[in-house]
Amino acid sequence: RRGAAGSFLRFGSAATISSVMVCLGKHKLAKELKILFPESATLLNNGKWSEILQKRMFNPDFDSQSSADSTSVSRSPTRTEVDLNNVYEVQDEILVESFSSKTLWDARIVAVAKSSEEGPIAAYRVHYKEWSTRFDEWVSPDRVVDMNDGNILKQQLHLAHLAKQQTYLPPFLQKLSAASFVDTANRARDFSYIPNLTQFSKFSLSASEEEKALHELKAALLLVEAALPAGCVNTSTNGVYKTETASHWRTMVLKSKTPGNLMGCLVLLENVISQDWLRPNAEHLISCLPRPWKSINEASVSLIALRLLTLDQGMKYELVKTDDNWETIEVSDSQQNDES
């Protein structure tokens, strides 16, 4: 229904009604439509709906050449249509569009499905490169594209954009010492973990000033933890800060609702860091701060900020220990400028 006059849009063809069902998703109206229009539901189940959309994309006159009712859907495909759909074969290297149509993934065709022996291709089964076979899946033909120079360039540009989004630091984090080391080699964290700190640059419109400050302190604490150098915490299988423990700690930070919760996370992190990685003045300053239990009971955003800043400024992020070898990492001027 549209307009102030209350006029209605009329959907006549089976394919158009199928499109409405897709738009409704899991809404209860979609289930009712599938009962009322079984032919449209069949188009979705057997893959014909995506074929019709593809024909419309390649042939602008498709709708005018066919009738508006379901008879246009059930007709046999012409030789041209079969050739149009039968593009890729088993073992072909291709790119697969994500559902958002923004990302292209490297893949290989491992199987081809047709509605009939001479019919158009209904779907391709693809294997994604460097992924386990358990992630193999059937995809509609409209998601499969050629692995040509243009599409590869598009893929590289988007992946670079995603990587930049992941490592971009909001302005309120760029003054921390940890900001200059979070992307350097030999960090204590698992290499597969990349903190997505851009999410902390947005606030709810109803958030109070304390909630906003707590939100930013969470990001700062996660940044400091992500920049910890190799060797300063015991990440071995039986270590106090093994991978599972680190993951649980990050979850605790994200779920912290009060200053006391977040102060508890900060104190836990302080306790697992070796004293060898603290500058003498920082070690002295931290010892002068209230005892852990008192800090947690009397926590406030200002006290968290003070304690966290003391830890950040006192950490030897440049000092790395791997296999009993000590190394000092030099941060380039360009990297420091990028962070400032």
Commentary on this structure:
The protein is an alpha+beta fold and 340 residues long. It has helices at 14-24, 28-36, 38-45, 48-58, 62-65, 71-74, 79-85, 149-167, 209-227, 243-254, 259-272, 280-288, 292-297, 301-314, 333-339; strands at 93-97, 104-114, 121-128, 137-139, 144-145, 319-322, 325-328. Strand 6 (319-322) and strand 7 form a beta hairpin. The model is unreliable at 1-10, 62-86 and 332-340 (pLDDT under 50).
Please give a quick description of this structure.
With 340 residues, this protein is of the alpha+beta class.
Determine the number of helices (DSSP H or I, runs of at least 4 residues).
15
Overall pLDDT level: 78
User: Could you give the distance between the termini?
Assistant: 53 Å
Overall structural class, as computed from helix and strand content, comes to: alpha+beta
* General form: elongated
Task: Tell me the major beta sheet.
Answer: 5 strands, antiparallel
Going across the major beta sheet, what is the strand order?
Answer: 4-3-2-1-5
Helix content: 40-55%
Radius of gyration: 28 Å
